[in-house]
Amino acid sequence: MLTWRKLGFGVNSFIRVEFVPLDETLTRIFETTVNDCPEVTSCHNISGATDFLVIFAARTLVEYGKRIGRKLRKIPGITDITSNKSLRELKSAFRLPL
């Protein structure tokens, strides 16, 4: 079975994104950016204080930092980005597209 790490992706992050009061235009910009970003393997609009949960893959922490800075941090209306890195994957029920 293929895994993130076997394919060279050493960093798998769960990123919580919060917006200034949710705005349709800003939401569309965010959604377009996320859909055009191959590093984003999944994105969910979720309930609670966080507006979106983004799952982001990168080969290294340096690559992760650069790509987050170029992609997500430039989207207008984002008030907070909080990320957690996966230390170990216990189960994955999906396959990466190759």
- How many angstroms separate the termini? 13 Å
CATH top-level class: Alpha Beta
Largest sheet: 4 strands, antiparallel
CATH superfamily: Lrp/AsnC effector binding domain/regulation of amino acid metabolism (RAM) domain
| Name given to the CATH architecture | 2-Layer Sandwich
**Low-confidence spans: pLDDT under 50, at least 5 residues?**
none
How many domains make up the coordinates?
A: 1
Outline of this structure?
The chain is an alpha+beta fold. It is 22% helix and 31% strand.
Provide keyphrases for this structure:
98 residues, 2 helices, alpha+beta
Set down the secondary structure blueprint.
Blueprint lengths: L10 E9 L4 H12 L4 E6 L6 E7 L2 H10 L7 E8 L13
Antiparallel strand pairs: 1-3, 1-4, 2-3
How would you describe the overall organization of this protein?
The structure is a single chain. The protein is an alpha+beta fold and 98 residues long. The protein contains two helices and four strands; from the N terminus they run βαββαβ. It has helices at residues 24-35, 61-70; strands at residues 11-19, 40-45, 52-58, 78-85. The chain has a four-stranded antiparallel sheet. A hairpin with a 6-residue loop joins strand 2 (40-45) and strand 3 (52-58). The radius of gyration is 14 Å and the shape is globular. It starts with 10 loop residues before the first strand and ends in a 13-residue tail after the last strand.
